[in-house]
Fold these 2 entries.
Entry 1:
Amino acid sequence: MPLRYLTDFDTKNIEKEICDVIIVGSGVAGLYSAINLDRSKKILIISKESMDENNSYLAQGGIAAAVGEGDLPEYHFEDTIKAGAGECDNEAVTVLVEEAPRDVEVLCNIGTNFDRNIDGTLTTTREGGHRRFRIIHALGDATGREVVDSLLRECRTRENITIVENCFAVDIITADEHFTGLLVKHENKYKYLISKAIILASGGIGQVYKNTTNATVITGDGIAMAYRAGAELTDMEFVQFHPTAMYSENVDENKFLISEAVRGEGGILRNTDGRRFMPEYHEMAEVAPRDIVARAIFAEMKKTNSDFVYLDVTHKEPDQIKKRFPNIYKHCFDRGIDMTKQFIPVCPVQHYFMGGIKTDLWGRTNIQGIYACGEAANTGVHGANRLASNSLLEGLVFGRRCSEQINSTIDSMKIIGTDIVNRRQLTTIVDAEAVNISIKSLMNEYAGIERNEKDMSMALCRINEYMEQLENSSLESTKEMETMNIANIASLILKAAIRRKESVGSHYRID
Ligand code: SIN
């Protein structure tokens, strides 16, 4: 069991604030759950940094929903289950696909400006694992930005919602296994936020890996603090690698995603010899489920002794590419690649976390008062491999469901706000930056696309040593606390991956 609380505090001596519901995270799941909570309740959304620093904001592809002509939730169900490699919860997937069109309609009603055809219908695209065109998008390839901006506008019209930026959630406080409040660090001071319920919409774990498409704030804090509070976590071995991040020689920069929609609309993968290879790996070729494409690319990289393969759209109409993928075009162009004329070097990197805080269909965890949604949660919809563009969708559907559940019970819930003291009084300081870098490299190397027990056990040993050092240090700075969270998540991923001997979905054992 890890530390119960990361840092020393005495809630009697720190500022307190009382509200009805705290939401941790300002991505799609957090904002959408906020607008679905009863308007008479006082809601506090806390964002780790600024409102645009989250994975939702970076999402390019779109939102999957059976809204196109000839599509049905049943078909969306089949594709989701197939991608999930037999590990999805059928009931959760049914909820997801059946309720998807209604949440898309709500977004349209609050002004989300999805891309539309000349006749006014929503434009749909296709991505890996989808057998139909069912992904709606906005601003070409900046769907997340448009959805977050429109939700934010809506939140700002609500007097009952307060948003606090640059506020780090340190620990969930519980008393007698019941949620009582949240310890946060804001403007360098600790504060005790007290409420009836908390929704953890704090995102995934991308920064546990050296190469990731995720925002730099995504250090698994919500999942780690839920674990410390006794919440059940599941499927920790299921980490998704996106097949096509732009390859860059700068190993330190976050990896820029080249949306799967580029392949969905005709992009071809070629190895460094220029040969198309995907048809040899799967009948759906470039639009096979993500885990299959990522492994195929990895295999080709090994065969050709290269750090990347190529994504080729040079056969497509240049104006259409520039209009459909304006941000991707610009990003590549700024780095010296005109994608309408040149191949884009790409490689798989960490992108999404299917595991997380176990919830039921209403976002409830095993601890009363604690709810979770979005990437932090494990509702069971993704199984061992998430279907493309089901993530923003899951944030919407289950974010709303969390709120519906809270709305129906909040009047009988009590504010508890028990005072707690935590004293470890340690003074040792760890070089958190160095530990952080080392853990990310170990995870990249040994808990990636291909895994084997020997290497994972060695990595786990090293990470356990780091955890011991961290647990015996003062953990005062945000960096130190994030590093403890990263170490904790890394060890849980490795333990689960060592335990699961067979290959399934994103978890691929070569031994
Ligand atoms: C993409 O645009 O390829 C990413 C969409 C997703 O993660 O589902």
Entry 2:
Amino acid sequence: MTRHIKVAAAQLGPIQKAEGRQSAVSRMIELLKEADAGGAKLVVFPELALTTFFPRYLIEDPDEIDSWFEREMPSAVTQPLFDQAKQRGIGFYLGYAELDNKNGETKHYNSSIIVAPDGNIVGKYRKVHLPGHKDYEPDYKYQHLEKRYFDVGNLGFPVWRVFGRVMGMCICNDRRWAETYRVMGLQGVEMVLLGYNTPWGNATHDEPMHLKMFHNHLSMQAGAYQNATWVVGTAKAGYEDGNGMIGGSCIIAPTGEIVAQALTEEDELVSYDCDMDLGKYLKQTTYDFERHRRIEHYGIIASQTGATPPPE
Ligand code: CDV
């Protein structure tokens, strides 16, 4: 089994609203070529990587909403990315807006896929923790309408064997939730792939700018360490039509340490040759789940959502 996998986080700079999918795909192909030249075998692209981060806009026309979604994958416009990756024997993670039409029922998901080096889609994930709000809020400084445009993912947090190793996926806001990583940790995950679009501004509250990047890394580093897994987090960064998004794409070791990090808010590739056995010692000691977990005390985690403090 492959002990080392060279993986690349392929950060994308801004995609302006008027920029077509074709241009985004061309930029991804350039990053893929760079990854190949550097010997990477797995490339992680951001959340909603084909378009601007459209949930910042209020869109009311259903046809216009659907125009931001993909009806098939690969589609005509993404096929060249699939072809290039297959030709080079590279696997990849891609985030996109998915329009699913089954049995006459239409659903909209914020999705990601893992594509194996042979070009086949081996896994699909649909975002579970949708942030933001459903209705346009005129008093908010920024709109974040993911709850309006997307249905809650219905696939849970599965893992898949890729390169003979156990890989999982999540998307953006999912990375802030311990449950995301632990559900995959309990399936022996060895590498979590995730893309994100994190605006510098919050819809509902103000906080110092530096906390944005701190919390971004804190949540991914904690998830990595507490489940002894690699985490590859890839941002879409920079200013999309004046709306700033943090970068900070990074590769995190099972020790919780960041081993590679993007320096810009532009298209940028960062890579690292990951020793996939590095997490083993933690999985056999501090995080030997079988020996140390006390599930008899964890019941409320899966049975209630809000916090209920004791009466005053
Ligand atoms: N795309 C996201 O899920 N963004 C959220 C913001 C809204 C907080 C994030 O967790 O980065």
